[in-house]
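May I ask for a protein sequence together with how it folds?
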Amino acid sequence: MTPAEASARTLEVCKLAPVIPVLVIDDAASARALAEALVAGGLPALEVTLRTPAALDAIRAMAAVPGGVVGAGTLLTPEDVKAAKAAGAQFGVAPGATDRLLAACEEEGLPLLPGAATATEAMALLERGYTTAKFFPAEAAGGAPALKAIGAPLPQITFCPTGGVSLKNAGDYLSLPNTVCVGGSWVAPKDMVTAGDWAGIEALAREAAALGR
C-alpha cells in the first residue's frame, strides 16, 4: 500500500462522521455492545487504542459489528501493526510517525493515520506521500489556532485533531478547512462503559454525530 493509497483510505474513514471515538477498553466482553451503541448513534469509525491487554480481543469483537469500521490506535512498532491487522483492524492510528512504523503499515497494507504536531512533522509526512494525518496532542500543541496556522502553508494536508478534544471545543476544530473530523473519548466515558449504559452512550454518540452540521 502506498502512502497516497493509505491517505485516501483514512480520509474515507474520517469522513464517515465528525467524531472518531477513541476507546481504551479494559474488558473485551463489553466491546461488541459498546461498538453497537456507537454505530447506532451515528459514529461508525472506532479507534481502539492498544493501551490495555484487552485491546486486540476488543478489536476482534468489534470487527464483527455490522456498519462499524474498527481501527487500532497507539500503534508504536511494526509488531503492533501486524497484531492489529491480524485482529481485524481496518485502519491504524499513531501518536507520531517513524520510518519503521510507516514502512510496516505500507508493507502490511494497513492504512495509517500518522500523528504530527508541528509543521516540520507534517512536511515530513507530506514528503513521503501522506496527505491525511492526526494532529496530536491537539490542545497541548496549541489547539485550533495552531492547526489553523499550520493549514495556511500546508493546505494539502487534512487533519483529525485528537488529544484534549471535547464536546465543548470540537466545533472550533471542525470549523477549520483542514479538519475533516476529530477524535475524542468523551462519547464513551469509562463509568458508562463499566455500567453497561449503552443507551446513554448511544445518546452521546448521536450528539457527537450532529456536530459540524
Notes: The chain has a mean pLDDT of 97. The longest strand covers residues 19-23. The chain has ten helices and nine strands. The first helix runs from residue 3 to 14.
